[in-house]
Amino acid sequence: MLVSTKGRYALRILLELAQYDRGRYMPLPLIAEKQDISEKYLESIVSLLVKGGLVEGVRGKGGGYRLRRALQDYSVGEILRLTEGSLAPVACLDGDANVCPRADQCHTLPMWTKLEGLINSYLDSVTLEDLLDVPAAEV
What we know:
By secondary structure, this protein is mostly helical. It has 6 helices and 2 strands; from the N terminus they run H-H-H-E-E-H-H-H. It has a two-stranded antiparallel sheet with strand order 1-2. A hairpin with a 5-residue loop joins strand 1 and strand 2. The radius of gyration is 17 Å and the shape is elongated.
């Protein structure tokens, strides 16, 4: 499993919003500046976060983006699955049904399946709140 820049940046964006005044919308240019991410790329990621119900946005003066839920209600697993599509360590586990013609005789499939479960379980146990509670030097 390799997390793309989209997934890593989504986490950074959500953490930036988490540290902003929760009653106000954070303007996109400010997020871009603070996170050193181009506005154009940022727009595509934020759009995905809005469609996924993680953030809400308002256009115009005073507009921007903010979190929709409490920090403890955002798991890293949820965020990465939204941005990455899957956290499967191998292609045959990517998707709902394993369509590999060798699945019945694959001796490694149980190991990959268990690894996928461990990855999902761990990432689902870590929240935005957890990430903010750890000093940056320890992350």
